[in-house]
Amino acid sequence: MIIRAQNISKVYNLNTEAEFFGIRDVSLEINKGELIAIVGPSGAGKTTLFNILGTLDTPTFGQIEIKNKNILSMDANEKSKLRNKVIGFIFQQFRLIPTLSALDNALLPLLVSEEGVDSPRKEKVIHLFETYGLKNQLTKYPSQLSGGEQQRVAIIRALVNDPDIILADEPTGSLDSKMSEYVFDTLQQIHKNNGKTVIYITHNLNLVEKANRVIKIEDGRVISDETCLC
Ligand SMILES: Nc1ncnc2c1ncn2[C@@H]1O[C@H](COP(=O)(O)OP(=O)(O)OP(=O)(O)O)[C@@H](O)[C@H]1O
């Protein structure tokens, strides 16, 4: 098991009149290599859950373990190290830095890690650009790339530290249907070829169908959790 969440709740504005449960008593066990879609209406708690699974936020109640490590007992520095090594993030709005080339954007997690960028690591990233059809885009700036290409650069950035888990918050939410397929195809390849655990939030029914497991959230609770044996 790669992630275990036990009875986690996130309470916003705790002990005030505005107290609100973003998620309520959620328990999940996520195994290595799963391809999971998180679905549910707007305001259901998907991003709240995403942030907690990604160690970007702390639950108010409950326990969370990633790779058998208790996240709640870690300080900010330990969490940030674990996050950098174990989790790759992809967001709806790509979040590339406009003044850096596509290659430098993808290298950023290495630049801020203890290991830094060396030649073999740079070559590996260039190889990823080739694998994902971006070899002619290395020196381009984000504004010179299509939305789908920008998201693929963001996916490579999420992969450079070879994380076990990829967390994607509506990765195709800003793209038209053709570009959505183009980008999702990359996520599927990463899942299939590299054995990564991929967890994505989506409103796109075509992408829900492609998951091995679908977790539905409503009013902060998991209302169904189905694994497809296909
Ligand atoms: N910082 C906050 N303070 C108070 N309430 C919050 C905060 N963040 C989120 N919420 C509330 O928690 C609930 C869940 O929000 P969340 O962003 O997780 O939903 P979501 O399912 O991701 O929605 P969407 O699909 O619209 O992105 C919402 O009702 C939201 O208003």
TrEMBL record:
GO function terms (MF aspect): ATP binding; ATP hydrolysis activity; transmembrane transporter activity
Q: Name one GO cellular component term.
A: membrane protein complex
What InterPro entries does this protein map onto? AAA+_ATPase, ABC_transporter-like_ATP-bd, ABC_transporter-like_CS, MacB-like_ATP-bd, P-loop_NTPase
The protein's matches in Pfam families, at most eight in alphabetical order, are given as: ABC_tran
Q: Which family does it belong to?
A: Belongs to the ABC transporter superfamily.
List the PANTHER family.
CELL DIVISION ATP-BINDING PROTEIN FTSE (PTHR42798:SF6), LIPOPROTEIN-RELEASING SYSTEM ATP-BINDING PROTEIN LOLD (PTHR42798)
Protein name, as recorded? Putative ABC transport system ATP-binding protein
Originating species: Kineothrix alysoides
